[in-house]
Design goal:
It is built from four helices and 13 strands. It is α+β, with helices and mostly antiparallel strands. The protein has one domain (40-183): tt1808, chain A, CATH 3.90.1570. The strands form four sheets. It has a six-stranded mixed β-sheet with strand order 3-6-8-9-10-11. It is globular.
């Protein structure tokens, strides 16, 4: 029988994040201490692919990779698996997880089950952890919104929401217009 003394010195945040990385089968993330499976539908994946296909050439020019690798938010019970993150290839090499501040861009595509998580919770946390650009593809509202310039109280610059079909400008270092007509 285990006693409380058996767990003295165990860091609960570290234990939770270790556990979520070792779940068999589906990938999972931790959002505000709740473990959530990450199992997107094909419709969700198609929306992410529409964005990924447009940013990938520029990401390569910048020496970056695009993927959905783990993002750790140290000091919190959060471990995210974004739909797309653009990160410098040198930082991605050999990394189990990166910090949001290590990214150049994070893209989340909403689903009925995670809509508020992507729009509210992750927006707040990504700003808090200095992700420079956060693009939300809201499939329920059929809109896209770009958040930039993270500050103490959240992102200080918001571009959108724009309806699907609009072009949205990703600022430097991308300097790229993303066509959202393929999202409709």
């Amino acid at each position: 029988m285990s006693t409380a003394a058996d767990y003295d010195g165990v860091d609960p945040e570290r234990a939770l994040k270790y556990a979520v990385q070792h779940i068999k089968g589906d990938r999972a993330q931790i959002v505000e201490g709740i473990i959530e499976p990450v199992s997107p539908t094909w419709d969700h994946e198609a929306a992410a692919e529409t964005i990924r296909d447009q940013i990938r050439p520029r990401a390569r020019e910048l020496g970056c990779v695009t993927g959905s690798g783990n993002l750790d938010l140290p000091g919190s019970s959060n471990w995210y698996v974004p739909d797309i993150a653009v990160v410098p290839a040198a930082q991605a090499k050999g990394a189990t997880a990166l910090l949001p501040e290590d990214t150049l861009l994070i893209v989340e595509v909403t689903s009925e089950s995670n809509r508020d998580t992507d729009r509210v919770v992750k927006r707040k946390r990504y700003a808090e952890y200095h992700a420079p650009l956060y693009l939300v593809v809201d499939r329920q509202e059929q809109s896209v919104t770009l958040y930039a310039e993270p500050g103490q109280l959240g992102y200080t610059r918001v571009d959108g929401p724009h309806p699907f079909g609009a072009h949205i400008r990703l600022p430097a270092p991308f300097d790229l217009d993303v066509d959202t007509s393929g999202l409709t």
